[in-house]
């Protein structure tokens, strides 16, 4: 039975179309339609009372942290009623739904039946309400007690010939408290196999920034946005994925900042913004955001950045000292002359051809940057999920270094994080390559010797399970099957496992493509009131994209009495698995989360007075040396980096494809079937193409095609996608993730960060015959 479970997308079981409607892409984001959309999603999932209660607490000081993105809350004024965005409201609706899945649901629906559904349909089923177990060979999940579930997992873990045969994945919603306990348990158990969603996300930023400026996090605060002269936004779609960033951009702009956007798509949110939290916005008065839009080809960023740098260098040479910040370069950087010598080999016109942007526009960009001293560079997945991602991000830092634009107000690096606590999880030690200092601190504070050998990252974990070296897969959140590349290969990997376990709020495809045995442990979400310890509601804490740690306290009554908090699940699992072997006092953590924070404070720098400061409204900033112009690199300076421009070679019948998010999804959670800003309604199986390419390839708008990839001699197929013409450069196409993850070759990963290359997949199109 297990091997017949359909995968979606699956060559044998194509998804059905849902009835596409196309309208003109929007020119302005948010506004009234966003407010209406928020309420529609809330109303579909819960009573208005519960909905209002949740929304009123969302991102308020003393309320809960939005489970959607990692964009920070304003340090000063928060709008009393609406410090959230349309997509934050959708995230809450999805999590706080009153629909629940109990034993009868799993009795009535086999795993096979559930796997026939689309991701959208699966997600809409409701919250998992009690622990469930799938015995070997069974067709249906059945209820299991918490205690038996922990005993079964413990037995599997203790049965392995080495702890490195177990893999412990984390998705970025886990709180600091949960993440800290999780890594502590995993390391005491004996492995560093702690892959996380960051491996697929901003890993390239972490690697690049560490090498360049000595810290894997961004350097700016929200205040810097309001002082910046130029804000560059590369490979990011904030209107959909970080909507509250638009308010910051609007304010920055009012203060005189210029905005330069670099994207293969003219994303609505980048172009214009209608602030729903202001009267003017409600009245539909839009503000134009982007001043210069650079319609780059997929992965043309490196060539573009070099072209801009070269033009700046030409100016600088005409008038030495007028463009570059020589004092900064001299005192605070290393590698300047090698960088300049290498840059001089390039030719602006050739670079312009490579990135697909007219030389006049590149000149305009260079002219805009010429006299500016305070530049912020923002980026997200459009830069990180490429083969040369690390090099491209370092090139962006090169540009900032030339201008002395880091370590001072109004300037710096801003990798815009995805999951709401993905940055905090890393700070807590969710990392397969922990530093010696971190491991030593664990040893000193807890008295056990943690494993020193590095563990598997996400892609390595998939290979290990595929090769039967990874035997137990445990996930703290997330949807591993759908989020990872090469869906069929990953499915084989998961099915090879003896046991797969998911700590989850909602049902997803990873529960349906499972190991020989499978367990689902249902946990509280951010909005749920957590009475662990029995006396008072517990709170947890999260670190946002700008390094602010804040408390998050759920306020809703959980949909079932059979849920447990993530920290509690980890404590119980640790006790069951390590039994008498553990030197950690897990019971005190179950008693009160303050004890977890006390131990975090002892172990990880920057958390002094954690319990006190986290209770202060707005939380506290973690230390960040790059913010103050100190660079903890091997040279003790910010490092220029030399890299070549690489250009993807394409055959005549090949195209580049990037996989992106629609406006109605959070990663693999599909909220709805619309991509409102891009004018797509009621359909996800589409491929955006340039109109001239559609014609040249012999297709018509609306034709249905199969997408093929042939990397490493493997034929990968995603069937049935509707061609939609769009303002995208020639030879570039876009589809939604996760439907096309089946095409992302497992071996195609970024140099140094090993992040799957989800933004440049070489594909061929074939007209669909069936
Ligand atoms: N509502 C909502 N919010 C989210 C998420 C969600 O799914 N839904 N996901 C969260 C997570 S985990 C993350 S990581 C972030 C993701 O946030 P984003 O990075 O904004 O998400 P993507 O949709 O992957 O968009 C990538 C953008 O990069 C562009 N792009 C693609 N390739 C290139 C390229 O080669 N060069 C350039 N310059 N641009 C390129 C695409 O056109 C698109 O605009 O959002 C977080 N927030
Ligand atoms: N092709 C392609 N693939 C990609 C990307 C891409 O752009 N293109 N983006 C990548 C990126 S940036 C990321 S971050 C990954 C995301 O990878 P993941 O983080 O693994 O995936 P999500 O879809 O965010 O996980 C959703 C599931 O998390 C569970 N969940 C939700 N809230 C909670 C909670 O509070 N606690 C627990 N325990 N579980 C919860 C629910 O069961 C839900 O089904 O995907 C990556 N994959
Ligand atoms: Mo992400």
Automatic annotation (TrEMBL):
Highest taxon of source: Bacteria
Gene3D superfamilies membership: 3.40.50.740, Dimethylsulfoxide Reductase, domain 2
SUPFAM superfamilies per record: ADC-like, Formate dehydrogenase/DMSO reductase, domains 1-3
CDD domains: MopB_CT_ydeP (cd02787), MopB_ydeP (cd02767)
A family per Pfam: Molybdopterin
GO cellular component: membrane
Ranges for domain Molybdopterin oxidoreductase: 127-502
InterPro entries named among the record's database cross-references: Asp_de-COase-like_dom_sf, MopB_CT_YdeP, Mopterin_OxRdtase, Mopterin_OxRdtse_a_bac, Prok_molybdopt-oxidoreductase, YdeP_MopB
GO MF annotation terms: 4 iron, 4 sulfur cluster binding; formate dehydrogenase (NAD+) activity; molybdenum ion binding
Matching PANTHER family: PROTEIN YDEP, RESPIRATORY NITRATE REDUCTASE
Protein name: Molybdopterin oxidoreductase domain-containing protein
Taxon lineage: Bacteria, Pseudomonadati, Bacteroidota, Chitinophagia, Chitinophagales
């Amino acid at each position: 039975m297990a091997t017949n479970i359909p995968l979606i997308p699956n060559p044998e079981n194509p998804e059905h179309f849902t009835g596409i409607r196309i309208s003109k892409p929007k020119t302005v984001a948010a506004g009234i339609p966003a407010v209406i959309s928020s309420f529609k999603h809330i109303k579909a999932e819960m009573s208005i009372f519960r909905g209002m209660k949740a929304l009123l607490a969302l991102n308020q000081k003393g309320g809960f942290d939005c489970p959607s993105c990692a964009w920070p809350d304003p340090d000063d004024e928060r709008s009393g009623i609406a410090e959230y965005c349309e997509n934050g409201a959708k995230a809450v609706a999805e999590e706080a739904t009153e629909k629940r899945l109990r034993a009868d649901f799993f009795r009535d629906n086999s795993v096979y039946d559930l796997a026939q559904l689309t991701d959208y349909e699966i997600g809409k089923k409701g919250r998992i309400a009690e622990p469930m177990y799938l015995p070997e060979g069974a067709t249906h999940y059945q209820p299991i007690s918490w205690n038996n579930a922990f005993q079964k997992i413990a037995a599997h873990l203790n049965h392995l010939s080495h702890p490195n045969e177990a893999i412990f994945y984390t998705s970025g919603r886990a709180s600091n408290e949960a993440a800290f306990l999780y890594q502590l348990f995993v390391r005491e158990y004996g492995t560093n196999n702690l892959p996380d969603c960051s491996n697929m996300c901003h890993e390239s930023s972490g690697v690049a920034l560490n090498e360049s400026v000595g810290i894997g996090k961004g350097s700016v605060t929200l205040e810097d946005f309001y002082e910046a002269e130029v804000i560059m936004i590369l490979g990011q779609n904030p209107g959909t994925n970080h909507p509250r960033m638009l308010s910051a951009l609007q304010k920055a702009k009012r203060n005189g900042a210029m905005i330069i956007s670099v994207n293969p798509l003219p994303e609505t949110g980048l172009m214009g913004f209608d602030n729903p939290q202001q009267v003017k916005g409600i009245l539909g008065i839009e503000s134009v955001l982007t001043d210069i839009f650079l319609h780059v080809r997929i992965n043309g960023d490196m060539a573009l950045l070099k072209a801009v740098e070269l033009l700046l260098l030409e100016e600088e040479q005409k008038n030495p000292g007028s463009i570059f910040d020589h004092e900064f370069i001299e005192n605070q950087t290393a590698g300047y002359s090698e960088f300049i010598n290498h840059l001089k080999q390039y030719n602006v016109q050739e670079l312009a051809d490579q990135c697909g942007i007219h030389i006049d526009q590149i000149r305009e960009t260079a002219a805009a940057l010429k006299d500016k001293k305070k530049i912020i560079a923002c980026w997200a997945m459009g830069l990180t999920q490429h083969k040369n991602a690390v090099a491209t991000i370092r090139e962006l830092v090169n540009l900032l270094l030339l201008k002395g634009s880091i370590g001072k107000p109004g300037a710096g690096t801003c990798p815009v994080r995805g999951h709401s606590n993905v940055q905090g999880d890393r700070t807590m030690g969710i990392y397969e390559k922990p530093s010696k200092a971190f491991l030593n601190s664990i040893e000193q504070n807890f008295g056990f010797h943690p494993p020193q050998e590095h563990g598997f990252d996400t892609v390595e974990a998939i290979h290990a399970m595929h090769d039967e070296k990874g035997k137990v897969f445990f996930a703290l959140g997330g949807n591993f099957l759908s989020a990872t590349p090469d869906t069929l290969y990953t499915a084989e990997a998961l099915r090879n496992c003896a046991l797969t376990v998911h700590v989850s709020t909602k049902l997803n495809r990873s529960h349906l493509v499972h190991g020989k045995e499978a367990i689902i442990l249902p946990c509280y979400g951010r909005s749920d009131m957590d009475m662990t310890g029995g006396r008072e509601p517990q709170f947890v804490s999260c670190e946002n994209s700008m390094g602010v740690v804040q408390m998050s306290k759920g306020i809703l009554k959980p949909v079932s009495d059979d849920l447990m908090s993530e920290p509690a699940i980890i404590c119980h699992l640790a006790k069951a698995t390590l039994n008498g072997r553990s030197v950690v006092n897990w019971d005190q953590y179950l008693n009160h989360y303050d004890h977890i924070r006390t131990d975090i404070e002892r172990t990880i720098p920057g958390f002094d007075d954690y319990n006190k400061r986290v209770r202060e409204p707005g939380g506290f900033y973690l230390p960040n040396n790059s913010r103050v112009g100190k660079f903890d690199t091997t040279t003790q300076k910010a490092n220029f980096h030399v890299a070549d421009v690489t250009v993807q070679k394409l055959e005549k019948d090949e195209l580049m494809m990037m996989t992106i998010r629609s406006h109605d999804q959070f990663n693999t959670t599909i909220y709805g079937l619309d991509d409102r800003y891009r004018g797509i309604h009621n359909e996800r199986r589409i491929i955006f193409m340039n109109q001239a390419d559609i014609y040249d390839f012999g297709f018509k708008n609306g034709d249905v095609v199969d997408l093929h990839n042939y990397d490493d001699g493997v034929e990968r197929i995603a069937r049935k996608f509707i061609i939609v013409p769009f303002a995208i450069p020639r030879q570039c196409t876009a589809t939604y993730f996760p439907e096309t993850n089946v095409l992302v070759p497992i071996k195609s990963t970024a140099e140094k960060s090993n992040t799957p290359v989800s933004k440049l997949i070489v594909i061929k199109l074939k007209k669909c015959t069936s």
